[in-house]
What we know:
It holds the Pfam family Methyltransf_16. The protein is of the alpha/beta class. The chain has helices at residues 31-45, 70-77, 90-93, 96-103, 116-122, 189-198, 215-227, 237-244, 249-255, and strands at residues 3-9, 12-18, 60-64, 83-88, 151-156, 176-180, 205-211, 230-234, 258-265. A seven-stranded mixed beta sheet has the order 5-4-3-6-7-9-8, with helices on both faces. The longest helix is centred in the first third of the chain and has 15 residues, at 31-45.
Amino acid sequence: MNQSRTLTIANVQITLTQDSTSGSHATTIWPAGLLLSHYISSIYSSRAKHRSLPSLDQKSVVDLGSGTGICAIVASRVLGASWTFATDLSEHAKGILAANIAANRVAGDLPPARDVQQLSSSGTLDADVVVTSETPKTPRSSNPTRPAPPILASVPLDWLSPTLPPTLLPHLPFSLILGSDTLFSLALLPAFFRTLTALSGPRTIALLATESRDPAVIEEAWKEAARCGWFVKKLTWDKIRKTVGKLDEQWWEEVEGAQVFELKRKRG
């Protein structure tokens, strides 16, 4: 049964639909997603203190295993990324994720509609998403004196696929990669980190949040990350609380147990 939850992050109101009875983890707002969305909002609001963060003006962000889309929506609406892609398996990308993305777009959030039928039939994107693989690297605006609003889209992405969706290719490498609750299966870790690496470049920063469910999976995840050329830094709980700032204790209790990790590509 679908339920609606409204969140306020950096004075931006976000309304999300979730279904905790669907049997799928992808249709629920989990503590890791809540924590990561508030964390990225906080660090970008004080970016002068976080000089290693990439500017997102005219840059692209991809959210892996986006689920309800909370982190992708924050990246677009709060961080101001020029292009944000919320990715998940096809059945999720075309369900609650697509609905939440559509519900949280602002007016003029997409370029002019074209080739909608072609996109729909190819399965590359949902029919309501009109970003194509030929989308230019400059957002289009009907008023050339006013910056175009950010583009926000849901895109089916299977980590086990040997190729990336054509829609993502013009945006490689992504400046910022997000992921919450993506490290849950030993069997999927190699595919996840292959996908992460394929989407990244030397200056890409990845921020991953996860709950401490199975320490063995997390331990193996960082071994796989190292094999794929990533340096992993765990953010301390004290640093996260100091960065996010004043939120009520009930909120902190809800996200207790979630962790945030910063990943950067190793040089050389």
